[in-house]
Write a sequence for this structure.
C-alpha cells in the first residue's frame, strides 16, 4: 500500500499534459504553439521518468566492467573490439542501458 | 538596435549619404545568432546578422562567416550575396554583417513534407548535390580562410581525435559514443585531400522555394575535411526530420543526391553518417550542459539533451550492422 497520496507524479503529469494539448494549445496564439509543444514534451519525458523502475541503473552498474569512466576508456583502447573475449557482453550491456535511457527520453527511437 | 548608429555606418559603407533604414525586424534565428530583416531605401532588402550574447565556442564569429560567404559566393554556391562587414562592436554591441535578403523556406519539418519545394524532391536533392560539389571546389590553402587553420592530412582521423577531445571535456563519460568512435577508428577509410566542408549542410539550413535552392545558410561550423562529411551529414537518419524513406535529408533519394554531386564514394558517406550521429549527440550534450550548468536556463536546450539516448541507440544499431557485414 502506498504511503504517498495518489494520483502519483506520472499520472499528474500525464493528466496535466492532456489538458495543455487539448484545452490550452488550441487557445494559444500560433507563435506560442512551439513553446507549448516543448512544455508538453518535457512533461511526457518527466512522466515516463517518474513511471520507470529505476532498478536497471544499479543492475547495469553491477555488470559494468569498472566504473563508467574506466569502461569508456577501455572501449576507446579497443579492449571490447569485435573478436575480443568480452565484446558480446559489452555490446549487450550498452544495448540494455541505452534501451532503458530511450524508454524515458526517446521511446520512438526504439522503433 | 540603435538605428541611428546603424544608419550612419551603412551610409559610410555604401557611400550613399541619403540611405534610410525604413524597417528592421527580428527574424526567427538560430540559438547562436540574431538575424534582422532590414528594409533600406531604394528597395534594398537586406539581412543583418549578429551574435547573441551567449555563443558556442566552436562556431565562427561574424567576420569569419562573412569570409566564408564571400568564398562560397565566388565559387558559385547559392548563398545570399555578402555586402558589408562591421568588425567594430561599438556600432551594435557585437560585430555584424549585411547580406542580400533571399526568399524561401528552410524549416525542416515543412520541407520534408512538401512535394514541391526545391522544384520537387528529386530535383531538389540533385540541386543540393550540385551545391555541395561547388562548395568542395574550395581547397586549402586559402589566405582569406586562414582562420580555419591548417588542413588535416587525414580528415577521418582528425574527426575522431576532435570528438575524443570533446568527450574528455564532458562532465560525464559517454560509453556509447566511445563505442561508435572506436568503430569509426577500426573502419576508417584512407586519408583524402581535404576541401572546404560546410559542416552543417542539412535540411533546416537550406532555403528553398518552389523553383529550387535559394540559399545555403549557416556556415559557422565550416572546416577543412573530407568532402564526404557533408554528404554523410545530409543523409544521416537523425537529419531526415522523421521522413526516413527519403535518405537525402528526408527530401529525396540518395541516388539523385549522388547524381547531382558527381563522383561519390558511398562507403565513405556511410562512415560519415555514423560520424554524424556521434557529432550531433556530442553537440546535444553540450547544449544540455549549458542549461544544466545554469549558463543559459532554457527548455529547448534541456530537451535537446534528451535526444542523446535516441542518437546512441541509432549508433549502436549502425555499428552492429556494419560490424556484421564486415
Amino acid at each position: 500500500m502506498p504511503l504517498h497520496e495518489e494520483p502519483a507524479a506520472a499520472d499528474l503529469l500525464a493528466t496535466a499534459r492532456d489538458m495543455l494539448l487539448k484545452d490550452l494549445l488550441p487557445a494559444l496564439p500560433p507563435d506560442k504553439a512551439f513553446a507549448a509543444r516543448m512544455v508538453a514534451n518535457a512533461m511526457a519525458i518527466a512522466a515516463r521518468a517518474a513511471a520507470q523502475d529505476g532498478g536497471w541503473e544499479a543492475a547495469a552498474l553491477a555488470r559494468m566492467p569498472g566504473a563508467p569512466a574506466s569502461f569508456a576508456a577501455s572501449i576507446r583502447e579497443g579492449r571490447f573490439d569485435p573478436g575480443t573475449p568480452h565484446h558480446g557482453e559489452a555490446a549487450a550491456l550498452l544495448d540494455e542501458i541505452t534501451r532503458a535511457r530511450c524508454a524515458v527520453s526517446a521511446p520512438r527511437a526504439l522503433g | 538596435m540603435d538605428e541611428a548608429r546603424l544608419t550612419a555606418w551603412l551610409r559610410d559603407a555604401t557611400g550613399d549619404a541619403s540611405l534610410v533604414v525604413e524597417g528592421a525586424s527580428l527574424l526567427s534565428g538560430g540559438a547562436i545568432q540574431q538575424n534582422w530583416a532590414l528594409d533600406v531605401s531604394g528597395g534594398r532588402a537586406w539581412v543583418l546578422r549578429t551574435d547573441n550574447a551567449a555563443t558556442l565556442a566552436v562556431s565562427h564569429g561574424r567576420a569569419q562567416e562573412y569570409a566564408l560567404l564571400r568564398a562560397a559566393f565566388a565559387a558559385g554556391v547559392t548563398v545570399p550575396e555578402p555586402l558589408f562587414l562591421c568588425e567594430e562592436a561599438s556600432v551594435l554591441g557585437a560585430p555584424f554583417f549585411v547580406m542580400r535578403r533571399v526568399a524561401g523556406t528552410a524549416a525542416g519539418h515543412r520541407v520534408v513534407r512538401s512535394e514541391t519545394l526545391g522544384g520537387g524532391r528529386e530535383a531538389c536533392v540533385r540541386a543540393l548535390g550540385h551545391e555541395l560539389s561547388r562548395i568542395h571546389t574550395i581547397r586549402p590553402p586559402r589566405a582569406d580562410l586562414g582562420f580555419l587553420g591548417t588542413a588535416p592530412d587525414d580528415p577521418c582521423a582528425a574527426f575522431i581525435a576532435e570528438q575524443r577531445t570533446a568527450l574528455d571535456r564532458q562532465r560525464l563519460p559517454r560509453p556509447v559514443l566511445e563505442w561508435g568512435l572506436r568503430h569509426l577508428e577500426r573502419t576508417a577509410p584512407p586519408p583524402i585531400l581535404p576541401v572546404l566542408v560546410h559542416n552543417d549542410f542539412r535540411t533546416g539550413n537550406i532555403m528553398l522555394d518552389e523553383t529550387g535552392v535559394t540559399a545555403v545558410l549557416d556556415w559557422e561550423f565550416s572546416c577543412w575535411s573530407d568532402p564526404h562529411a557533408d554528404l554523410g551529414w545530409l543523409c544521416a537518419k537523425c537529419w531526415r526530420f522523421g521522413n526516413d524513406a527519403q535518405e537525402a535529408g528526408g527530401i529525396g533519394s540518395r541516388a539523385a543526391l549522388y547524381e547531382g554531386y558527381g563522383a561519390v564514394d558511398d562507403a565513405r558517406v556511410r562512415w560519415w553518417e555514423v560520424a554524424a550521429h556521434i557529432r550531433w549527440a556530442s553537440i546535444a550534450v553540450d547544449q544540455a550542459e549549458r542549461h544544466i550548468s545554469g549558463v543559459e536556463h532554457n527548455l529547448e536546450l534541456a530537451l535537446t539533451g534528451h535526444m542523446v539516448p535516441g542518437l546512441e541507440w541509432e549508433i549502436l544499431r549502425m555499428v552492429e550492422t556494419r560490424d556484421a557485414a564486415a
